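User: Sequence for Protein hunchback below. Tokens please.
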Amino acid sequence: MKVHMRKHTGENQYKCNECDYSCTTSTRLKIHMRKHTGEKPYKCSECDFSCNHSSNLKVHMLTHS
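Assistant: Structure tokens for Protein hunchback:
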């Protein structure tokens, strides 16, 4: 409930040390940090595509069907 309430209060407890981004959860910050590190842990099994978020891979996989 605390995390949910942060959305309404605008309280962003987690802040990026590379840019001005801030968010309400450590998970979102971890995903954001991949933009700075270039980490792309989600890899397509059909081609050489890779990305930093699982939802992007799901969208990409539609190109193979």
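DSSP finds three helices and four strands in the chain.
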